[in-house]
Amino acid sequence: VRAVQLHGEEGEDYVKELKKLGICVIRAFRVTSPADIRAAENSCADYVLLDSGQGSGETFDWSLIGSIKREYFLAGGLTAENAADAINMLHPYAVDASSCLEAGGFKDYNKMKAFAEAVRG
Known about the structure:
The protein starts with a strand and ends with a helix. It is 31% helix and 20% strand. The strands form two sheets. A five-stranded parallel β-sheet has the order 1-2-3-4-5. It is an alpha/beta fold.
């Protein structure tokens, strides 16, 4: 499977062109208002990722998600300490973590293991 995760200001036309090439598209949306959720709901991307911002390591106001009408990936500030609560409360299709899994600029095995255990638990 060929896939791409977009994090910039790419528009729907760009997403459509990628999809014509048979590429699975995951499009990130920075969530700061209900309008961002509506934009994610209406995106033609195969998957949407709801985030606080590009690698900020901070959560966003999860109450903005409301009753989104499509599956989504949840990102932004997820850690081993809050991932289980987020999953139980919001029921995302998938979760995405990055900066919380690092130590000294590199992925840390123990942090990745703790995160995976929290998500699976």
